Amino acid sequence: MARKSVLVFLAAASVAAADPDFYRLMDEATARMHAGMHIAPTGDVDRDFAAMMIPHHQGAIDMAVLELRFGHDERLRRLAQGIIVEQGQEIQVMRNILGRSN
User: Fold this and answer.
1) What is the rounded distance in angstroms from the CA atom of residue 101 to the CA atom of residue 48?
2) For the chain, percent of residues with pLDDT exceeding 90
3) Torsion angles phi and psi, residue 39, rounded to 5
4) N- to C-terminal Cα distance for the chain?
5) For the purposes of burial, counting CB atoms within 10 Å of the CB of 59, is it exposed (0-12), middle (13-18) or buried (19 or more)?
6) For the chain, what is the radius of gyration of the CA atoms?
7) How far apart are CA 49 and CA 55, in angstroms?
8) Cα distance between residue 40 and residue 35, in whole Å
């Protein structure tokens, strides 16, 4: 039992040593994403799919921006840059399909 307590303490200390802004901002990004994905169904699965995927992709972009701001691993930073570009392009395609420009 004592070993488990030490491991939990060490894990908590490790997270505390990381930048707390990263975790707060990541929580905010995922909350926005999940809130945006909750839509009133229209009965048009294609439209609903796009309407739910836009905030999903935006959430990925928001999280990727945080990786660029706080992360250090160059492989993950390159991945984050790709996510920003590719998912941004996909958002534009879905907005065009939905007839929205924003």
Assistant:
1) 17
2) 78
3) -120, 160
4) 54
5) buried
6) 18
7) 11
8) 12
Residue 2, amino acid: A
Tokens for 8, please give them. Answer: 């939990």
pTM of the model: 0.80
Residue 56 — φ and ψ, nearest 5°?
-65, -50
Residue whose structure tokens are 């990925």 = 60
| Domains of the chain as residue ranges with CATH | 19-98 (1.20.1260.10)
* pLDDT tens readout for residues 28-51: 999 999 999 999 999 999 999 999
Helix (H) or strand (E) holding 65: helix 45-70
